[in-house]
């Protein structure tokens, strides 16, 4: 019996190996699009072609998501033959029918089997029959009840069909099968009707043409829902192929030119340039998680679904409830669907040449007005739009779709500035770090409003998410007179680069619910707890300068937060008076602070860390270092409750991991 079982297993393994050995590709679309032309004359290709012929129904179309290359049993072949007259589940969704027609064309180019030609022409007739009188196509034909009857741009279904019609009507060499003149003329009329449908379904937002939705009502042309998580919306993905199709038309009409120009402007308006998808794969290469991370100057991407009235991206689970961020939906939909796309970048790439060819100006009054609305200049001498920074901020649009820049010319601006939560996507850019100085002199005693007076002492308060600052000096000029904040960040997704942040006690306050903040190439100085708060913050290539003996950090990291303050490749320096400085102490007992690859001056105390007279912090706080250098890096003398990371542990402290956003998407510049 044991020998028999082993024999059966061996036979089954051999059969599986033999079947798999015949299939060069795992996926059916790969066979169609990636094989060399000569392969379509092989016996293997002919064998697959027999399957494709079996799967085609008498009506001319094919069902979707079939791996046509898989070997069929005699019973399966018999069952498929019995289904020939059935019209159920015949579709153009997921490239069905269109891709099988392409396969038959490639087969006929190598093997003049008339069955391949007939199969292609049957497919073409199916497409003719499925087209609505208004020029659109449904997802399934014969019609299937539900959203399937809508005009379907989803997954490029209608564009795929129209590309077939275009090649046939233009009599190109793309397909090896040449239809009759009557069929060519029929394809031309079908194509023209389809383009007319596209023009009529382009969505107007407040009277301005934008893009297209994945589905439109087949009668009213209005945006329409599909599956529960595919709500009516403007589509960053489907719209791209529609525009590329329109741009491929020789001698386009005025209506087509307007449609392309309008869609191009919409793509420019809605692109996201500082967000990147991070995919986590298992050992089998399957996606097990997706995260969106901040990336400066990232290649542009677009959301798959955007609100019809304001272009705001949204996401939805199978319950059909809109969410503003990808992490708010369940893992099944988050990882099993394409929520972002880079497809429109081809439109942006090809538009200039198309515009020149068709006599379209590349600049317009509208673009100039748009730039003005998103760019303000502040100058003390009156040469800009404003003389005060706060006035410029007050003039910025609330909750803008794109980055708004406030450019500040050199000068000393004695202002107390607030960037409120509705001023999102704001970039504060100085002319130079050395000479663009924003300063104020509030401190705890001067404010004198009670125990929380510290939080009112800021020179700049940032409440609006998606904030960036560069080439500035931000200073609290009150001197060594107690708590006095220079920069207070209570915003998510804040980036500060090439800035000097100057003060004494409590120079830099970092907070905000689940906030992630990033400092690069900055100079930060202070005395006691001069970097403090609850945010997750990464400091890279920064100089951290202590003015006197005290503490650099006072983190109040929330419990169960993975990262707190992380310093990488930073230099810890000090004034001559500072000879005994702690790396940090816990404002709250779950504080987290880590120094990686940092150069520590001799002013750093050998023990490194202080417990702030909180014994429980020694059990709960996480203080660590890795690969430090300089006289102040003395790992063997550190307090016993601190940590020296291993190389493997330190490798987890990447910008992607630290700044992975758990609340909302990184903003679009």
From TrEMBL:
Domain of life (superkingdom):
Bacteria
Q: Which InterPro entries match?
A: Pectate_lyase, Pectin_lyas_fold, Pectin_lyase_fold/virulence, Pectinesterase_Asp_AS, Pectinesterase_cat, Pectinesterase_Tyr_AS
Q: Which reaction does it catalyse?
A: [(1->4)-alpha-D-galacturonosyl methyl ester](n) + n H2O = [(1->4)-alpha-D-galacturonosyl](n) + n methanol + n H(+)
Q: What is its EC number?
A: 3.1.1.11
Q: Does the keyword Transmembrane apply?
A: no
Signal peptide positions (record): 1-21
One GO MF term on file is: pectate lyase activity
For this UniProt record, give its keywords in alphabetical order, as a comma-separated list.
Aspartyl esterase, Hydrolase, Lyase, Signal
**Record protein name field:** Pectinesterase
């Amino acid at each position: 019996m044991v020998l028999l079982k082993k024999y059966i297993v061996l036979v089954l393994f051999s059969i599986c190996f033999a079947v798999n050995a015949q299939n060069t590709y795992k996926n059916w679309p790969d066979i169609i699009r990636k094989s060399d032309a000569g392969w379509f004359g092989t016996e293997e290709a002919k064998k697959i072609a027999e399957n494709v012929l079996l799967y085609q129904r008498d009506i001319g179309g094919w069902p979707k998501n079939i791996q046509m290359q898989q070997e069929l049993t005699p019973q399966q072949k018999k069952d498929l033959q019995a289904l020939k007259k059935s019209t159920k589940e015949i579709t153009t969704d997921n490239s069905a029918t269109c891709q099988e027609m392409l396969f038959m064309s490639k087969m006929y180019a190598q093997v003049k089997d008339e069955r391949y030609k007939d199969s292609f022409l049957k497919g073409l007739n199916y497409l003719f029959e499925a087209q609505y009188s208004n020029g659109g196509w449904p997802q399934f034909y014969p019609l299937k009840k539900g959203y399937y009857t809508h005009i379907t741009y989803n997954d490029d279904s209608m564009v795929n069909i129209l590309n077939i019609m275009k090649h046939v009507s233009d009599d190109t060499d793309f397909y090896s099968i040449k239809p009759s003149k009557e069929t060519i003329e029929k394809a031309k009329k079908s194509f023209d009707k389809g383009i007319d449908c596209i023009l009529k379904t382009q969505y107007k937002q407040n009277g301005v043409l934008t893009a297209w939705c994945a589905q439109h009502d087949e009668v009213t042309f209005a945006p329409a829902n599909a599956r529960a998580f595919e709500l009516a919306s403007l589509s960053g993905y489907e719209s791209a192929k529609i525009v590329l199709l329109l741009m491929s038309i020789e001698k386009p009409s005025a209506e087509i030119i307007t449609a392309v120009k309008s869609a191009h402007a919409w793509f420019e308006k809605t692109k996201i340039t500082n967000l990147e998808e991070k995919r986590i794969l298992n050992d089998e290469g399957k996606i097990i998680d997706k995260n969106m991370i901040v990336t400066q100057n990232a290649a542009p991407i677009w959301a798959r679904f955007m609100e019809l009235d304001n272009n705001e991206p949204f996401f939805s689970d199978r319950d059909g409830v809109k969410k503003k961020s990808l992490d708010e939906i369940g893992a099944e939909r988050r990882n099993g669907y394409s929520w972002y796309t880079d497809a429109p970048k081809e439109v942006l790439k090809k538009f200039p040449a198309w515009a020149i060819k068709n006599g379209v100006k590349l600049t317009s009054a509208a673009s100039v007005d748009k730039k003005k609305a998103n760019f303000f200049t502040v100058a003390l001498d009156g040469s800009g739009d404003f003389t005060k920074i706060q006035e410029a901020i007050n003039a910025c649009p609330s909750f803008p779709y794109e980055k708004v820049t406030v450019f500040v010319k050199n000068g000393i601006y004695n202002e107390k500035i607030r960037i409120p939560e509705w001023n999102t996507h704001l970039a504060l850019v100085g002319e130079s770090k050395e000479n663009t100085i924003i300063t104020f002199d509030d401190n705890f005693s001067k404010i004198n409003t009670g125990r929380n007076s510290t939080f009112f002492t800021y020179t700049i308060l940032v409440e609006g998410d998606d904030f960036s600052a560069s080439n500035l000096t931000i200073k609290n000029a009150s001197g060594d007179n107690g708590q006095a904040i220079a920069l207070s960040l209570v915003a998510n997704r804040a980036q500060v680069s090439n800035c000097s942040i100057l003060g004494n006690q409590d120079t830099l306050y970092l907070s905000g619910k689940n906030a992630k903040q990033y400092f690069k190439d900055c100079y930060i100085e202070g005395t006691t707890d001069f970097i403090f708060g609850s945010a997750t913050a990464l400091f890279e290539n920064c100089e951290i300068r202590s003015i006197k003996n005290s503490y650099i950090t006072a983190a109040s990291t929330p419990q169960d937060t993975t990262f707190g303050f992380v310093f990488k490749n930073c230099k810890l320096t000090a004034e001559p008076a500072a000879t005994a400085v702690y790396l940090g102490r816990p404002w709250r007992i779950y504080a987290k602070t880590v120094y990686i690859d940092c150069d520590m001056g001799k002013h750093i105390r050998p023990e490194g860390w202080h417990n702030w007279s909180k014994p429980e912090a020694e059990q709960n706080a996480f203080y660590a270092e890795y690969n430090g250098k300089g006289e102040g890096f003395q790992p063997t003398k550190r307090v016993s409750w601190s940590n020296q990371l291993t190389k493997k542990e330190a490798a987890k402290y990447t910008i992607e991991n630290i700044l992975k956003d758990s609340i909302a998407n990184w903003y679009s510049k």
